[in-house]
Design a protein that fits this description.
Blueprint: E1 12-19, E2 31-35, E3 42-45, H1 46-51, E4 55-61, E5 64-72, H2 73-79, E6 103-108, E7 113-117, H3 118-121, E8 131-132
Parallel strand pairs: 1-6
Antiparallel strand pairs: 1-2, 2-3, 4-5, 5-8, 6-7
């Protein structure tokens, strides 16, 4: 799916749907469905996500300390075959790191959405970190 931008450089890379139970009495295990312009799609449960390796994040808001452990989104994307594409003098400018010009649309079960550039999700591309928790 291409955007309506003149360059057409932004494409939908994947859609992440957080399949969390709506009520406590629902016993179906939580799954994260990942699909879109990736080599593979998957419905990942806690065991599959844990196998990718955890990462902890801690922050303080209004004097309260919070901490979560999750899996970095770039690890999930790489697990499903994403590569940023080559870089180097011999690579045409339009093809350099073409994967970093894509976006991730994360959609929760309640319809809330967040959009990230793939580059900001990848380790080493900046100080931020996107976790699937």
């Amino acid at each position: 799916m291409r955007s309506s931008s003149p360059s057409g450089a932004v494409a939908l890379l994947c859609l992440v749907v957080l399949g969390l139970p709506a009520r406590a009495e629902e016993t179906a295990p939580a799954k994260v469905d990942v699909s879109g312009a990736l080599p593979r799609s998957a419905s990942l449960g806690q065991a599959e996500l844990s196998a990718l390796g955890g990462s902890a994040s801690t922050w303080t808001v209004h004097g309260s300390r919070h901490q979560v452990t999750g899996v970095r989104l770039d690890k999930v994307l790489t697990h499903l075959g994403f590569t940023p594409a080559p870089m180097g003098k011999d690579v045409p400018v339009a093809e350099k790191r073409a994967g970093f010009r894509k976006v991730v649309v994360a959609t929760a079960r309640d319809g809330y959405q967040a959009v990230f550039s793939v580059a900001e999700c990848c380790q080493g591309m900046g100080p931020g970190e996107v976790l699937v928790v």
